[in-house]
Each structure stands twice: as C-alpha cells, then as structure tokens.
Amino acid sequence: MSRLALRAPLLLGGMIAALTIAGASAQTASPPDFSSNLTAWAGGIGVDFAPVPGSPSPMRQDPAHPFVPNGTGKQPTYRIGDLSNPNVKQWAKDVMRKDNDEVLAGKIAYTPRQSCMPGGVPGFMLYGGGTTYFVQTPKEVVMIFDGDMQVRHIYMDVPHSKTVKPSWYGESVGHYEGDTLVVDTIGQNTKGIIDPYRTPHTEKLHVVERWRRIDNGNGLEVEVTIDDPDTFNQPWKGVRRYRQAQQQVNEQVCAEGNFLLFDYGIPVAKTPDF
Length: 274
Fold this sequence. Notes:
Blueprint: H1 3-27, E1 39-42, E2 50-51, H2 90-104, E3 131-136, E4 140-145, E5 150-156, E6 171-177, E7 180-186, E8 206-214, E9 219-227, E10 236-246
Parallel strand pairs: 5-6
Antiparallel strand pairs: 1-3, 1-10, 2-10, 3-4, 4-5, 6-7, 7-8, 8-9, 9-10
C-alpha cells in the first residue's frame, strides 16, 4: 500500500475536523456590533431611499417640481411625489395629489421631525439633522434617534404576537444572520411615513430591514423591503446608508415652540408642573 493511501484517511479526517470546527465557529460567531466605542450613525438630511436593481422604484421627486434643499442660496422647496410611479395604487395617488396641490398652493409639507412626531417604520430612518444609536443586548436591540429622542424596541429571537394592536412603531422582532441584523415589523398604525413624499399606507404594512456594516466598519447600510398589498402593486426595496461618528448621545428637545412654524398638533404644556 502506498504512503498516499495510508495518509488519505488521516487527511480526510483532518478536513472533516477542520470543517466541523469552522461550522461550529460560524454558528457561535459574535453578532455584528453597531454600538461600541460611542458609535453614532449619521445619515444626512433629506436622503431618499436608493433603488435596488430588480425592484420597483421607491417614490421620487416630481420632475415638474424640482426639490431645492436649504443652504443652496435659492428658495427651498418641499418634496412633491411623482404620481406617475406605476407601483402605487390609485387611492394612494389620489391622497397624494390632494396633498401635493395644497403644498404647491402654500401649505407647509408635513414631516415627523419638524412636527415632533414619531416617524414609524421605515420613517424612523428618514429623519434628518441627527444621529442614530444602537443599544444591543441578547434579548433586545434599542435604536435611539437623538433629534428628539425617538426610540424603537426590537425584540430578539421571538415570534410576532398572535394579535398586534396598531401603534406608531408597531411590533418589531429581530434576529442575526451572520453579519446582518434582520428586523421584521408589523402592526403599525397609518400615521407614520414611508418616504419623504408623504406616501400613505394601510395597517397591512409589513417592513423587513437588513442592517449591516460596510466600508470596513466605517459605514452602515440598511436594505428595506416594503410590502403593503393595499397600497402597492408589488413589494419594493430601498437602501439607506449612514456614516460612522464617535460621540455621546446628546439630548435635542423637540417640543413646544416649534408649532410657531409647523403646527401639526405638537403637544404643549398649558399649565405649570409646580
């Protein structure tokens, strides 16, 4: 018998052992860390969802009414959705057309941030002018937006409740898939936003987020899948990206006083506390 024949069982056994160890290591690998070293994630202002190849397009600005942001030296404008998007059902387009006409006629366009209101999902990740923080524990991931202390709770490795009462942020459950945090959200009311264009939705809205670090850990990317069969003809995907910064959570109060500019029912304390 040749030396190769004698060594073959040993080589095969070694390969199996190595694969077994690698598999066990993969199963016990640490989940992605979005929260260490005072990590804050900044996403910029007025950012659309980037499109995903093969998916219906997210809502976009109406080319007849170009969007002009602040700080350009020109008169800023509001976001006006392009109602030619074929994926949006007619009832939603009718709602948006009425809203668009009112905004073009001079009404202030609604956004959750300027009105001190919850954004819902995926509206939470469309806030501008602030940063997002993660607090990760084995049973829960908490996301905090420092702009006005908006908080989301994601419960890990549990199923959805049999009955979910609609709320601003619904019920979010999550799990890790390798280097990705996967979040599944249902049970939202119809008050939150889907995009910067004020596209409406129903209580059937189902959102799946896939969060992962990119750019050697210096960036954060989330791919969002939006499914609402009563609002869209097909589910669609979009991508949002953040850059990393090191800073503590700073409290930025969004409360009474802002209604002088944006009166969308901001809570006001009418009596003293003491």
